[in-house]
Amino acid sequence: HNGREETTTMCLIPDVAEAIRVPLVAAGGVGSGRAMLAAMNLGAEGVQIGSRFVASAESSAHIKFKNEVVNAKEGDTTLTLKELTPVRLLHNRFYQEVVTAYENDADIKELTKILGRGRAKKGMFEGELEDGELEIGQVSSMINAIKPANVIIAEILHEFRSAKQEQAKNERFNF
Questions:
Q1: Which end of the chain has the smaller Cβ count within 10 Å, N or C?
Q2: What is the pLDDT of residue 2?
Q3: Is pTM, for the whole model, over 0.70?
């Protein structure tokens, strides 16, 4: 999940499942019951869901950030700052500063200076959408409403169960 080498969840889960003998909890791109089922089909025993709960009623994220997440489209995020701590950001003025720094061959010291202190708090918890750091996963493009956490969980579980039943009766999967 957000590694420097950008290994996707689809590749990472089976690789890790082969290598370990403890329960595997998958993260990254899981925001629906179908994605949860896919992760489990790939070898995970469970999932960790992050981005979907940013847009929950109970989340401590600022309402402006929650609304940005709901409005995000495919391609509105990019994994960056891999030299520091890899992070996926929604595109905004801060993100553009990072892009410009890379274009100018910025070193780690310069990137750290741009990141500064409190950028994540400023963006995600204080609602500063242009100059704040807006961390969110690619799955944000699939989030279309702010809902209570219990509703999100119920929807994910319902979709998981439905997808699992559909998979079981689908002849394409019966070899």
A1: C
A2: 67
A3: yes
